[in-house]
Amino acid sequence: MVSIAAEMKVKANSPFSCPGEGGEMPELDVQIITSGGLRIPAHSSVLASASPVLGSMIKRPQKHRISKQKIPILGVPPDAVSVFMQFLYSFECSEKQLEKYGIHLLALSHVYLVPLLKQRCTRALSEGLTIENVVDVLQLARLCDAPDLYLRCMKLLSNNFKAVEQTEGWKFLQNHDPSVELQILQFMDEAESRKKRIRRHRQEQGLYLQLSEAMDCLEHICTEGCTSVGPYDMDPSKNMDPCSKFSTCHGLQLLIKHFAACNKRVNGGCLRCKRMWQLLRLHSSICDYPDECRVPLCRQFKLKVQQDGRGADARWTLLVRKVVSAKTISCLTLPKQKRRENLNNPKSS
User: Fold this and answer.
1) 1-128: which CATH number, 3.30.710.10, 2.60.40.10, 3.30.200.20, 3.40.50.300?
2) Could you tell me which residues are beta bridge partners of residue 42?
3) How far is it, in rounded angstroms, from Cα 273 to Cα 326?
4) pLDDT in tens, 22-63
């Protein structure tokens, strides 16, 4: 391994150069001591400007006056310290170096407050995560206050937990750091709960969207007619072709036909008729023009609510609000051209 001092002597104009006044190199007045006993000469001015922690250590008064101040950087491989020093001089670090010493460089960048190096290490470690190293990187990210890397590790671990369980890192974690194990299990439980909530929300939104589409089809059938069912004043021989929402519209037409002919609906004994009553009531709760609306019982439902002198119950009010919200979201997701057509012709399907 070639020391930084040797590189400076060989390459006067290298990125490690730190010329003083008159273009001359200042004195190498600091020595970095590594775990392997390697001594790396350096310039105190460069270290102090690159790291506030090293700057504080350099300014600290010494009991015994010596020619060169010694700063120990222990606990990591000497080569990792050399790469760290290289970065302090040049602010450059190769992908190969990050791949090889990323874990050690992240620890050094955190301890000595070098945010640019910490950012690069975090990104490199995120891209190099594997089943085998995710537990080790997770623990380091937790200690080095790297939340993005920590979350990335948690997600990988959660999605591949059965494979991670077989690794030596996980077994070591179980034996030596049960608190982190508990955090991981809690994260997985919360992640599963979030997935369930999202699935339930999507199912509910799908239901509200179906009801919103049914309201459009009901108004369409009662205003324009569609295939076999239409307004009372429409000539049956002039039935229209299937509309763009015919799958919903067809089922609604069958329900309307049943509702018109069923003998049980008077006593409330037919579930299909109850469903039709609910759809008519829901339309009335949403409709803004009951005096002009051609959907049966729309105005009557509005008058009944006014005569009762009280609003609908909370659950029904929530249902109406959800259906209106689903319809609004559906309109916003339409292509611009289709949206313009709907605005110009609100009665069209």
Assistant:
1) 3.30.710.10
2) 30
3) 25
4) 455 678 889 999 998 899 999 999 999 999 999 999 888 765
Give yes or no for a contact between 244 and 334, defined as CB atoms under 8 angstroms apart.
Answer: no
Question: Residue 92 has which token pair?
Answer: 């450059």
Q: How far is CA 199 from the centre of its chain?
A: 16
Contacts of 217 (CB under 8 A, 6+ apart): 226, 243, 245, 248, 249, 252, 349
Q: Please give the average per-residue pLDDT across 115-126, as a whole number.
A: 96
Q: Hey, what amino acid is at 46?
A: V
CA angle, 96 then 101 then 106, to 5°: 120
> What is the distance between the alpha carbons of residues 144 and 111, in angstroms, rounded to a whole number?
8
Topology of the domain comprising 210-344: CREB-binding Protein; Chain A (1.20.1020)
Q: Residue 281 contacts by C-beta under 8 Å, 6 or more apart in sequence?
A: 301
What is the residue type of 269? G
From first CA to last CA, the distance across the chain in angstroms is 76
Quote the DSSP letter at residue 342: H
* Each residue's pLDDT tens digit, 62-93: 655 556 789 999 999 999 999 999 999 999 99
Asked whether 323 and 284 are in contact (CB, 8 A), the reply is no
Map out the domains of the chain as residue ranges.
1-128, 210-344
d(CA 270, CA 281): 17
Task: Report the alpha-carbon distance of residue 194 to residue 131 in Å, rounded.
Answer: 23
Going by DSSP bridges, is the β-strand pair 69-73/30-34 parallel, antiparallel, or unpaired? Answer: parallel
Q: What is the pLDDT of residue 336?
A: 53
- CB within 8 A of 79, min separation 6: which ones? 1, 101
Start-end of H helices in the chain: 4-10, 44-50, 52-59, 78-90, 95-111, 115-127, 134-143, 147-159, 161-164, 168-176, 178-223, 246-261, 271-286, 298-308, 314-332, 336-344
3 state DSSP class of 321? helix
Identify any residues that bridge with 32 across adjacent strands, giving them in sequence order: 40, 71
Contact call for residues 69 and 44 (beta carbons, < 8 A): yes
